[in-house]
Amino acid sequence: LRQDTSGPAVCAMLEGMGFSVVHTAMLPDEAEQISAELRACADEKKIGLIVTTGGTGLSPRDVTPEATLAVLREIRAIPVAMWVEGLKATPRAMLSRAVAGTRGSSLILNLPGSEKAARENLSAVLGALEHAMHMLAAEGHG
What we know:
142 residues, alpha+beta, four-stranded mixed beta sheet, 5 helices, globular
């Protein structure tokens, strides 16, 4: 139980890049609740980029990757790019279990709970995320 600084930092970063943040939520580390929120954001709210922070570590309560994998088609190289960039700063980056992928026309990305790591990870992949979102919006063409 600590104050979330990574979520607001990621929102500010995305807004600074021209994204509109249309929804935020803070959820407990419960896989079904996380999966349900991701489904609602993708299927009902039709949010183009869905970003989670936290729950990607090694603690038994860290279930965000499993909850995320349950609802998407995985894109394995996005977390790899985040790991590669993160390893430049700390060997602890290899402990992240973050995942990414698509659900319908939404792109879903897990980021670490650490504000510094979340910023670094998002920076590492933002250009590719923008291109992926354009491809999803054009149904794969582009």
